Amino acid sequence: MDSLKEITAEIIKFSDDRDWSQFHNSKDLAVALSIESSELLELFLWKGNDDFNRDRLKEELADVFMYALLLAEKNQLDIKEIIFDKIKKNNEKYPVEKAKGTAKKYNEL
Ligand SMILES: [Mg+2]
Questions:
Q1: What is the set of domains in the chain, with CATH numbers?
Q2: Which is a Pfam family this sequence falls into (predicted)?
Q3: Which residues have a beta carbon within 5 Å of ligand 1, which is an ion?
Q4: 15, 19, 65, 69: which has the fewest C-beta neighbours closer than 10 Å?
Q5: pLDDT on residue 96
Q6: What is the pTM of this model?
Q7: What's the 15 CA to ligand 1 centre distance in angstroms?
Q8: Sign, Cα dihedral of 93, 27, 57, 7
């Protein structure tokens, strides 16, 4: 079994065991994803670039991944396909000859 599907199945099992899937509409999954992203950011607030709690990073990153996977599953999206499609778009927006070594946004290249 594809590992992403295996991971998603485990998350859904956890949720279904608690009858929580009834709450997992796309809007609330997107809100939860954003909240978990903020919890991830909070680990870095008022600190130096590499001054963060690694154990807390693992937890918050896992939360972000879990809600992202649930949101994709809810909308029957293939993770590999949507990421590869986005990389293709990014390649077009950020051609190597223009984007290499710069952090400028595509509309400033
Ligand atoms: Mg969290």
A1: 3-77 (1.10.287.1080)
A2: MazG-like
A3: 36, 39, 60, 63
A4: 19
A5: 95
A6: 0.90
A7: 16
A8: negative
